[in-house]
Amino acid sequence: MFSSTNWRKTAEAIAIPVGALLFSLVLFGLFCALCGKNPLAVYGLIYKSAFGNWRAFQGTLLRSAPLMLTALCTALPARLGLMIIGNEGALVMGGLASIIVGLTLSFGSVTPNAAQLQQVSGIPSFVVLAGMAIAGIIAGGVWIAIVGALRHYRAVNETISSLLMNYIAIAIMNQLVGGPIKDPGETIKASSFALPEVNRLANLPATRIHFGLLYGIIVCILAYILIQHTTFGFAARTAGGNVKAARIAGLPVGKLTIIICFLAGSCAGLAGMAEVAAVHGRVNESLVAGYGYTGILVAFVARYNPIACTLVAILLGGIISSGGALQRNLEMPDATVLVFQGLVFLVILYSDSLYGRFKIFKEPVITAPPPPSTSTTVPV
Amino acid sequence: MTDVASQTEPNTLPDLHTITAPPELEVVNMTKRFGSLVALDNVSLHLKPATFHALLGENGAGKSTLVKCIMGFYKPDHGDVLINKHAQAIASPRDAHKYGIGMVYQHFTSVPAMTVAENLVLSRFDSQTVINWKQELDHLNAFMANAPFKVPVETPVGQLAAGEKQKLEILKQLYLKSKILILDEPTSVLTPAEADEVLGLIREQVTDGKLSVLIISHKFREVTSFCDEITVLRKGKYAGTGVVKDLSVAQMAEMMMGEKREPQKVEKTPHPEVVPVLELKDLHANKDNGVEAVHGVNLTVHSGEIVGIAGISGNGQRELVEVLAGQRSLTGGQVVVNGKPYFATRKEIDNNHVFVLPEEPLKNACVAHMSVAENLALRTFDKPPQAKGAMLIFKAIRDMATNLINTFKIKTPSPETPVGNLSGGNVQRTVLARELSSEKINLLIAANPCFGLDFAMVDYIHSQILNARNRGVAVLLVSEDLDELLKLSDRILVISGGTFAYESPIETADFAAIGHAMAGH
Q1: Which of chain A's ends, N or C, has fewer CB atoms near its CB within 10 Å?
Q2: Whether B348 and A250 lie within 8 Å, measured CB to CB
């Protein structure tokens, strides 16, 4: 892909989402006005509490870390023409697998007894975290790979199946934390045992942002390279663009589908691992915080471009993190930001129909030249 | 008009639907152009009241264009439609309906989830805001009581068999009180038994003087069993008309195909020592809907030979090509290339140097939103110098693209332009460049490679294919254009109903026999 020289396409891919975001801001302003609030004050507060100062921005980055990863769960398969929305389920499965591995490596058991709890194993912290990350990656990957396999072998619609898999994943988590891996000491909500402090994912120096943000940025860059600069990415883009052309070229469409789905799920699984290892320390229903669904939105706004996903994730992370401030300062309900997100979602979906409608972004079509004479010899 | 003198022939047109006899339909000197293409050239046709009239011709002869002009889908550039000797302007199917003309299409036009009754009421041109179902059902039951065939009115259309669906399409026209039925290959989706039943019942209506029928068909069997007269079109021109009982099948085939055409002389290098490259062994394949399209064909294509496959579209050739191109899985038998089983994996394609020129290249062989350069690299992107390990080397991809763009004279603003922005001819050139520029080609599979292209481009592609053959490439050429096949092939086969119905070296090919075989005789 030589997108740098194809400026019209690039300009279109930037102008339309930005325009859509601005339009959804206007709609949100109308909503605020209906609630009796000054839209400009609301915009100002969102900006201030999300990006206004370093402390606020840290809160934004903290929320954007999982979004970058869950966004890839939609963005990668989209390049293959698949619309996967099982991000939440893959995140939950990743978190679940990582806590099981993390607890086993830390205490020698998923349900440690009192004596075991006192004695954290001598396994180095980075080994425990690596084990947790691998577990999260595999669990999330397998979860979405199932969707890909159903799609390829049984022609099951991947959007529906991945959506339903979310409910299954959440049910599995609730089942496990309510029984087999329940911490009896935790009475408020059914939870797993907690990771010991030493095996938590650390914060970046002098911040309250955990290393998950780095994971997100690195994985997004890797995903970009994978899609745009490798033969695998070329094959995937070909199959996503026209499966018939891919078949003529002998590309293994089924294999590509399942591998891409695995990679997609493993990104969301890694997000689950980071949430568990850095934020919650254990698995309970707080893990189902909507990062998966917001990740879908991030992927849409970013036009499935992994690099753009990082920036959009920061933007939407900011909107989420401003929810509390809206509640405190303007006495608007916490869910107000969800209204905003929903509006962005709808407008972005609508804006998809605008591609190719603006003449300014269109390259002129070239008509056929006079054909060469039949004596033209072509080196074959 | 002597044979139908007993029919009433009103000079005025009060309401044609109340008159029991069908009107007389004439097409006079009709011409229709699409850009520079003359699809219909001064064609006339006379459908006498209460006759069963067949419209014959090869693919692209102009049959569909003619009936679409009659139905008001197309506006003819020249010529008139006469209803009972009066020229009438038909601007839309609704106008056609006004004159009692109704058309049944090749494919079903009913809503599967709705019942037969709902579909029939839906088809009415005078759709009401509120439907009085009791009244409509009474009306429908009365209509069904007198209809030539019965279809259960309360059944959802989706549950009907293909034959019943086609009956419903015809009933719809009778329900709309059409007196002239135009049937566009109505039996192509039916089994022979279903076809005979449907056509037989329509024949009775015609014999009773209630209907006139104009049927587009490729099947001589149906023409000889059910039709009274034929009109033949050839390459957009009127080629003759006649009474079926006075004509033999051979005569009809000759009218359709024209005089025996001498294969155009082309330079062919003789290849004394040939080896089998492509072998099909008892190959079976299904259509998209799971019905078998290719019924166990056997074929060997040798090095340095062009094997042409003729046939009317829809006889299994598309599925056959798709299997060879790796776009469709076979359901039985085997494809063997260079003596080894072949499944069109990327490795097998590379090792055996197999290349494909599919029909509709933008749909079948290109990714529209990817660049010309990327589309040109589709066969080579994962091999050095275009790839180093798993990484793409953009410079090499770009260099090769620039090279091919110059050599094959692809007109594009830049190698980075999405291929979908190019004109049809340039998309075709892009695919030709990719498939024919390899240093080594062993097997070339081409399907309608010149479809929709202008004359000079056709010549260019033919020369490229011949060029490949003369260098020893084994070529399988599937085409609906018989002239193209006669010009290029060393050996010609005819596919009909999913099996090969005819095979001959080109020198001894019998033109009439090809026609028979194509028409399923």
Answers
A1: C
A2: yes
